[in-house]
Amino acid sequence: MTTQLEQQAAEARALLQDLVMLGHELDDETVELAVASETSLADAVAAALVEAAGAQDAAAATAALIDRLELRRQRQADRAERIRSRIALALGSLGLRKLVTAAGVVSVTAAPPRVIVTDEGALETCWWITKTTTAIDKAGIRQELLAGRDVPGATLSNRQDTIRVRT
After folding, report:
1. Is residue 161 part of a domain?
2. Residue ranges of the alpha helices (H) in the chain?
3. How many domains does the chain have?
4. How far, in Å, are 64, 73, 96 from residue 70 at the CA level?
5. For the segment 88-140, what is each residue's pLDDT rounded down to a tens digit?
């Protein structure tokens, strides 16, 4: 029969090994040493919480980086368009329709006119497009299922317990 201390040590070992598998910088020897030196389950959970907080911070930083990269992508696309427009202006001012360069052959072609809306309020409704989006009302389905009513095509899951951390 295993004691509470042995069960906690086993859980601590498993938790630390899971951290290793998830990319935490612990090697097997460190895990074994931590458990052998009576690392408590509380210490292992504390280490896991630190790792989870770091992962959450990394996810937020990644989202911010994606936003910055999207802005950079748009600036670069705008810059490329300005360069192309300036080349067209230079060739047009010289009356050239075609120029052979080391980077390629540049031909000036007439661009189709683009619509510019100057006053949306003045446009008739026939020029407006109504867009709708649909999404599943999971909150409503959940309420129905919790009330004991059947919702064909939906069911409640048997989710694992979760934790709440207050600091």
Report:
1. no
2. 4-21, 28-36, 41-93, 138-146
3. 1
4. 10, 5, 36
5. 999 989 999 999 999 889 998 887 888 899 999 999 999 999 999 999 999 99
